[in-house]
Design a protein that fits this description.
This protein is α+β, with helices and mostly antiparallel strands. It has two domains: about 5-55 and about 265-395, no CATH class; about 105-220, no CATH class. The protein has helices spanning about 5-20, 20-60, 90-95, 130-135, 150-155, 160-170, 200, 235-245, 260-305, 305-315, 320-350, 360-385, 390-395; strands at about 65-70, 100-115, 120-130, 140-145, 155-160, 180, 185-195, 205-210, 225-230, 255-260. A hairpin with a 2-residue loop joins strand 2 (about 100-115) and strand 3. Helix 2 (about 20-60) runs antiparallel to helix 9 and helix 2 (about 20-60) runs antiparallel to helix 12 (about 360-385). It is elongated, with a radius of gyration of 32 Å. The relative contact order is 0.18.
Length: about 400
């Protein structure tokens, strides 16, 4: 056992040696610092991505049920692109009769260019009904939403996403009252949505779904159907009702019914895999840092061979020499780990201004523990070499 007095002496001796070799000490700790910083930052960014995705789902509410064609994985342009069912108004009329269903929103989706005042930008056309804004918690910064009568009449009006309105006009709210062109269709802007941070939403052209009938949507079909449920406690019953209703018209593989819980579970599974890969990549830096410590400690042992010989000659045991070099290796790794944590924390504080990155305390403790263990592990080899030197060999070493 190492008593406190002995350990204190070892620490002081190690620190004194580091003071004599400041540059070497800094460069040796640099590898561990970069490794710890990389792992902590990757975990923080991974958690930030998870937080961002969860916030996006939560913004849509817990009472949302989505019906997608086929597997539900879309390439992004138009109904039926993934195979399976091509939904139409007949499905909307059938689903609205299911108990506890509050909204049924048909969604036509298509990537297209939009023009205004000589400017042309890429956008996403979304044909929906008036309930879309309430179900998806969409707020406007100017103008107004289209109404049920606008949907029924197929009125050529639209609500623009914030980024699209900002790109087409000097000020986003200046878009209200202006006319924009979607392929061969001219529509009047009656509202602008607030900024959401979602690329598709912020660059959307949202209009009554019946206004898309014709050149945009000649088949009068929908990419998906969104259902708003009266209460989250009724989501399971509504999903069963939806499946039962659609199976009267489609085969089981023609559509998929999911809710927020299903999607979040899938996203979390994917996130866990991606995060594990990121941590494994970041850990390579820790390994490289450990090898750097081993190399420097080997050089230190060689440089201080005579010192080791003198210490052995005056009574130091192999254990004393082993502990001396292991202590130096541990201090180097701990010092690098602390610096890595400090720099990672500062970077995360800056990143949080733009992205919800987060530092997980458990991951920090584990990373710090691993970096310390790496210092000890890679310090063992040069320490054992120093400890095994005989006094005569060490003193005579040139």
């Amino acid at each position: 056992m190492v008593n406190i007095k002995e350990y204190t002496h070892l620490m002081k001796a190690a620190i004194e040696d580091f003071r004599r070799n400041k540059v070497r000490t800094a460069l040796t700790s640099l590898g561990i610092m970069i490794g710890v910083m990389s792992v902590v930052l990757l975990i923080a960014l991974g958690l930030g991505l998870k937080n961002y995705i969860e916030d996006q789902f939560n913004s849509m509410g817990a009472n949302l049920v989505m019906i997608m064609p086929g597997s539900g994985i879309s390439g992004g342009t138009g109904a039926g692109m993934v195979g399976g069912a091509e939904f139409d108004e007949r499905d909307v009329n059938s689903l609205i009769r299911i108990p506890n269903v509050k909204y049924v929103i048909p969604v036509f989706f298509k990537a297209a260019g939009v023009e205004a005042g000589g400017e042309k930008k890429n956008s996403y056309i979304m044909g929906v009904n008036e309930d879309y804004f309430r179900l998806m918690n969409k707020e406007l910064i100017g103008g107004e939403e289209f109404t049920k009568s606008d949907v029924a009449a197929g009125t050529k009006v639209t609500v623009l996403g914030y980024a699209l309105a900002d790109n087409l006009f000097e000020n986003p709210t200046d878009a209200v009252g202006k006319t924009v062109r979607l392929e061969n269709l001219r529509v009047k802007v009656i509202g602008v949505m607030e900024k959401t941070g979602d690329n598709e939403g912020d660059n959307a052209v949202i209009l009554p779904y019946k206004a898309t009938y014709g050149s945009l949507n000649p088949k009068k079909t929908f990419w998906s159907l969104y259902i708003g449920v009266e209460s989250k406690d009724q989501v399971t019953n509504v999903k069963e009702g939806v499946e039962e209703t659609l199976l009267k018209r489609y085969k089981e593989d023609d559509f998929s019914v999911t809710d927020q819980t299903d999607l979040l579970s899938t996203v979390n599974q994917i996130f866990n895999i991606v995060n594990s890969v990121l941590i494994a990549i970041g850990s390579i830096s820790l390994l490289v840092g450990g090898i750097g410590i081993m190399n420097i400690m080997y050089a230190t042992v060689t440089e201080r061979t005579k010192e080791v010989g003198i210490r052995r000659a005056v009574g130091a045991t192999q254990r004393d020499i082993l502990l001396q070099f292991l202590t130096e290796s541990l201090i180097l790794s701990v010092f690098g780990g602390v610096l890595g944590l400090i720099f990672a924390s500062l970077i995360v504080l800056v990143v949080r201004i733009f992205f919800p990155a987060a530092i997980n305390l458990l991951s920090v403790l584990i990373t710090f523990g691993i970096s310390s263990a790496i210092g000890v592990f890679f310090g063992v080899f040069p320490a054992r070499r120093a400890a095994r030197l005989t006094p005569i060999e060490a003193i005579r070493y040139e």
